[in-house]
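Bumping with the actual sequence this time:
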Amino acid sequence: MCYWLFTYPMDVVKSRMQADKLGQGRRYQGFVDCIRVTYRELGVKGFFRGLTPCLVRAFPTNAAAFGAFEYVKYLLDNNSKPLSMTLN
């Protein structure tokens, strides 16, 4: 969750640039221009649109990834136990 708090504004800029057209009709001339246009149009809030759902999904997503990692590690090495088995 802390990761998203600090990197979310740049992720918004990246996503806006990815959604931009190619060639003629491009809205942004580059990364810095995208930051300027976003700030001009939406203010500081524009860089944090959608942050709440991102933070809500961050914990369960990372927990599932960690659990899957531990389980696969267990399957590949039968000498170790998954973290969930060591907590019981």
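The tokens above came from a reply further down the thread. The mean pLDDT is 87.
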